[in-house]
TrEMBL record:
It comes from the Bacteria. Pfam families: HTH_24 (PF13412), ROK (PF00480). This is ROK family transcriptional regulator.
Length: 384
């Protein structure tokens, strides 16, 4: 039987009568509150097909459970008794996002309202999978202690890993993560952490973070480029992650053949180039933090990958037609800007009219987007 994290959700988070975390109507209202924080209870009715009586009843039930908090009313909203403003109550639950990259594991604690409670990381180099998980748990416990968090409000874990999906909760990760590859991560991690675990590709959780905290706040259709040790991405359609039939939508490296793949914008190749040019860059996370566009080898590498990069951008434009293409993952912003400046759109105007092109935008997520997206995934999958 396939692994389902929903089956392991603790009873205190479930609805008393019908089971599940929230009903479809409750979920729709929670989505509204997420998208419009500070919306008043009376204003919600105009955003839904539900009657005012139903809206008030559902909100009162969510508030009684501690999922929604009622705030001070907005002044000047019509006659009668002022209506309280609404927000998600972060005290109801928190989650942990874990993102396994080739050199580092990012950790992010987040509450139900989307507030980051703490972040940490574990160096992956020369550690076994078992040792790495022990270190992650130690860091997670420390973050819980720093925030005085109880185990009762610990909802679940979002787990992200570099690599493509092969079925169930199995992923085929790059060589540095061979021990993590082709095994059912969901039940293994659920047993280890004693919590339900939602497993995703790291590029997908990066796209989720961008959708919920970054450019997705005002753009609902975009492609997310995830520059990491390898190179992948994710697709957001109408604000939601598009997985595809096999769970690998957005695996952009798949358009390149074996020879071309060596000239795709994977950061492992840039690090190799830098090291050959005498620049000591021990890891991708180090490069992101200390990147200098004038390092010897950077301009040469960018020039070499530009043809493959441009073909990718135009393939995304032709097939997906997004409003924007977001440059994310672990790419240094200055490097992303260098690529954007070299972008060439293969446009053939008809009757002097051009086909619309996507905006090219550097990610607005300044922290570990993959871990951040992993942290919000348990809530996004169940509450809103």
């Amino acid at each position: 039987m396939s692994y389902s994290p929903e089956a392991s959700i603790a009873p205190q988070f479930l609805r008393a009568s019908e089971g599940g975390v929230v009903s479809p109507n409750e979920r729709n209202l929670l989505k509204l509150i997420w998208r419009h924080p500070g919306l008043s209870r009376s204003e919600i009715t105009s955003h839904t097909d539900l009657t005012q009586q139903s809206v008030y009843r559902i909100i009162d039930q969510l508030a009684e459970r501690g999922v929604v908090a009622l705030g001070s009313p907005k002044p000047g909203l019509g006659r009668g008794q002022p209506s309280p403003t609404l927000r998600l109550d972060g005290r109801h639950a928190y989650s942990c996002g874990i993102s396994v990259n080739t050199d580092i594991i990012g950790i992010c604690l987040m509450d139900l309202a989307g507030n980051i409670l703490g972040e940490s990381s574990v160096t992956l180099r020369e550690h076994t999978m078992a040792r790495s998980l022990d270190l992650v748990r130690e860091q997670m416990v420390e973050l819980q202690r720093q925030n005085s968090l109880t185990s009762e409000s610990f909802f679940g874990i979002g787990f992200a890993i570099s690599g493509y999906h092969v079925g169930g909760t199995r992923y085929n990760a790059p060589l540095p993560l061979h021990e993590w590859s082709l095994i059912e991560l969901g039940p293994l991690l659920s047993d280890f952490f004693s919590r339900p675990v939602w497993v995703h590709n790291g590029a997908n959780t990066g796209a989720i973070a961008e959708s919920m905290f970054g450019v997705g706040r005002y753009i609902k259709h975009f492609a997310y480029l995830s520059f990491n040790y390898g190179f992948g991405g994710g697709l957001i359609s109408d604000g939601e992650l598009l997985l595809g039939g096999n769970g690998n939508a957005g695996e952009f490296s798949g358009i390149f053949d074996i020879e071309e793949s060596k000239r795709r914008p994977a950061l492992q190749y840039l690090i190799e180039r830098l090291n050959r040019n005498g620049v000591d860059v021990p890891s991708i996370s180090y490069m992101r933090k200390h990147f200098d566009p004038d390092w010897p080898g950077v301009a040469e590498w960018v020039e070499e990958i530009t043809p493959a990069y441009n073909r990718l951008i135009n393939a995304i434009r032709a097939v997906v037609d997004p409003q924007a293409i977001v440059f994310g993952g672990q790419v240094p912003p200055d490097l992303a800007q260098m690529l954007i400046e070299r972008t060439r759109i293969y446009d053939r105007p008809r009757y002097g009219v051009h086909r619309p092109s996507p905006k090219l935008i550097i990610s607005e997520i300044g922290t570990d987007a993959s871990a951040m997206g992993a942290a919000i995934t348990p809530f996004h999958s169940t509450f809103y």
